[in-house]
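I'll show an entry:

:::
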Amino acid sequence: MLNSRSLSIPTIVLHWLIAIAFIGVFALGLYMVDLPRSPDKFALYDIHKSIGFLILLVAVVRIVWRVKEGALPAASEMPAWQEKLGKAVHGLLMLATLAMPLSGILMSIGGGRAIEVFGLQIIAAGEKTPWLQEAAGTLHGMAVYVLVALFVLHGAGALKHQFIDKDGTITRMLGRA
């Protein structure tokens, strides 16, 4: 059973795995988007899409684990508005870990492209569906801005808890509580 100061190892590992993978795939996406069309750019897209697919799988595991484990224990008492904002940011981040890779997958499917993970075909190529490709592409692009805002809020909240509230939030997310 978790006390108010500890988090389970799976919670910590899944959090950091998704965080690091998202930052990496985000950085790769920013780098490759303005590259000229070339075999190198397409190889980077394949890596980007493969990592995105793996993020989706880990995100599903994380959400299932979160439901099984229940709400994370609060690190400290806080005003109701901060608690609500924190829960909203966490919920939206969880939703984003599904929406970003799903929109990328739908963008590829809409473009008539197969879904491959490091060369292993998961879904065969099909007919182009331009409206799907465009809608998913718009969602994928807009979600970047939402994710950046959520990352900033999440990081600011963690820093506030650690250094102003002095409740050890970052310490416990590092497995040291």
